[in-house]
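Justification of computing resources. Each target in the renewal requires a structure prediction run like the one illustrated here; the chain below, 262 residues long, is used simply to show the kind of job we budget for.
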Amino acid sequence: MNQKLFQLRSFITYWLDAVDVHSLHSPFFYDLYTQVICGPHVHDAVDAIEKLRHELLSSSEILQVVDLGAGSQHSKTTFRAVSDIARSSLSTPKHSILYRNLIHHVHAKEIIELGTSLGINTLYMASGNPHANVKTLEGSVAIAAIAQAQFDRSGFQNIVLVTGNIDETINGVVDKVAKLDIAFIDANHRYDPTLHYFETLLSKTHSKSIIILDDIHYSDEMERAWKVIRSHQKVYATADLYRCGLVFFDPSLAKQHFVLLF
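Resulting structure tokens:
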């Protein structure tokens, strides 16, 4: 099936199944929805980060990008303008604020991001807890250089950028983390790599950890990976927000799955 058609069908299914706060009887998910998903959308760092986003969207700089993942739907050439990468690859402000709110809500201290892109999402996550350690992995050297420039300009001191093929760098990064609080997977959008990343991160999760999986309805491969993760024996609850899925490991949640309007 054509990928655009697949995504349209997936969105219609999501829209028909999605519920809001009025259908949530779980205290945990009620609090999650009211305090995080629909939580405060304004904080001190937003304006500064969005200014950087605007500059990236306006940049005419050309990068030579070696794509190690599933490839871009928007460009088939290795030479890409920073503005094009920003338009097609960055999380929306709405989703970046969601991730920031989630980190702030659970007081996450150890955070790993797979897929830095241009660094905007990373900055939001770092702003969720300025005292957290944020380790972000990016496969493209050229894109990582742009991201590092944003980190240097931002003044955040809690971000460490690791450059190189994520399939090769992830083990070294995860091994150095005692306990993982939040992980964000937005890297190789294929079935096998996604499950590999999940299993690798799983080795350092605890009952209060949360893994965020981006683009769960990007393709048939990603939907299949999402379904496998939802049914994993160590996963006790999940939430589908269409663009992303949230994975929880707390046994007290007793195998719940919600499709949440966002």
